[in-house]
Amino acid sequence: MNNTKPRITLITRAYFWRQGAGLWARTRETIKFLAEHTNLQIIFLDIVSEQDITSIRSFEHSFNLTWLGRPKEKQQAFWQENFVKSTKSQPISDFYIIDKTENSFMLDVIPSNAITILDSQDIINERAAKSLVNGIVDPFYLTAEEEKVLFQRYDAVICIQKNELQLVSQWVGEDKAIYMPMPQEINAIPIRNTVENIGMIASGWHANVNGLDNFLKEIWPRLDPHLRLNVYGAVGGHFSQMTFNNVTFHGFQQNLENCYKDLDLVINPVNYGAGLKIKSIEALAHGLPLVTTPEGASGIEDLNGSGLLIAKDSADFAKKITQLIYDHPARVRLSINGLNHIKTHFSKAVCFHGLSTYLGIK
């Protein structure tokens, strides 16, 4: 029996050793899994500081890391050339995984006889269309047909949620579409009898800023004036010159567990985007009631009414928060059902099953 671990090269621009963004967390979990089961090499498309190296060395499992630098111009050509230079003396990997569709330009320098996998993270054309409706021009744009053709250049494509899996399966074939959501560890917070603190944890991504701005202007004034809103993460930096009653912007927090412990209810008011909203499933993994939008529940919308609440508009958002404040049994029910859903559908074994099968990992 051949027990040799497959050799994997992962190409990414995600700062996976840092907290603060769902994409980084997603890539971090993927790296931890691959480092445990394969011979992993990471190609990082940027620079790495000494402080970064210290953080990277704290990983439980080992891997080789090569960073390609930060060019002043012509980024794609710079990284392509440095990739060829840095890997020319190394054996060809069994699999090359490109993290995010935006980095697909690296396909052109991967050995032609290697197996290529895209971890798409989201569907670009859908993300761009939703952003445009909200007045934001996505810096990386593809039409549906262009994205389909690009996906077909890969041997397999990883999808983060089932709605996207269905679409990608039509584009590339079911045998080439891999379902891999974001694994979550259970860390349940007890449901307190009263609701005093609600909160949002988010990066400074423009969709988060847009959602919070709408919440503060359209929803927050409708709620009990004694309620406190705690905002964690870089998203709060965009509101530093504004003052809202009973709203605290805590900024970036290294320990997210302490943030969740202070909350009685979580909101995710994002109105556009794509992919799986990692902060939404993270809230469920902490056993906290979640009120969100249809976009914030993308990929887990079947939980509406049982494990989370989806608001159709600003007035409904405020109404659902108010209902939960005065309904302790409902908050407990949402907590239990949300936790059970995470245990069943977002364990490491479930999330990495498709990729394990494709890579031939036991």
Description:
- By secondary structure, the chain is of the alpha/beta class.
- The protein is built from 13 helices and 13 strands.
- A 7-stranded parallel sheet has the order 3-2-1-4-5-6-7, sandwiched between helices. Strands 10-9-8-11-12-13 form a 6-stranded parallel sheet, with helices on both faces.
- Strand 6, helix 6 (162-172) and strand 7 (177-179) form a beta-alpha-beta unit.
- Helix 7 (206-219) packs across helix 10 (314-325).
- The chain is globular and about 65 Å long.
- The relative contact order is 0.11.
- The mean pLDDT is 93.
Q: What topology emerges from the helices and strands here?
A:
Blueprint: E1 7-12, H1 22-37, E2 39-44, H2 50-56, E3 64-67, H3 75-87, E4 95-99, E5 115-119, H4 124-133, H5 144-151, E6 156-159, H6 162-172, E7 177-179, E8 197-201, H7 206-219, E9 228-232, E10 247-251, H8 256-261, E11 265-268, H9 278-285, E12 290-292, E13 309-310, H10 314-325, H11 328-345, H12 348-351, H13 353-359
Helix pairs in contact: 7-10
Produce a short descriptive summary:
The protein has 362 residues and is an alpha/beta fold.
SS element count, helices: 13
Helix content: 25-40%
Radius of gyration: 21 Å
Please trace the helix and strand order, writing H or E for each element.
Answer: EHEHEHEEHHEHEEHEEHEHEEHHHH
Strand order of the largest sheet: 3-2-1-4-5-6-7
Instruction: Kindly state the number of beta strands.
Output: 13
- What is the typical, i.e. mean, pLDDT? 93
Strand content: 15-25%
Largest sheet descriptor: 7 strands, parallel
Q: What structural category do the secondary elements indicate?
A: alpha/beta
Overall geometry: globular
Distance between the termini: 13 Å
Which ranges are low-confidence, i.e. pLDDT below 50, for 5 or more consecutive residues? none
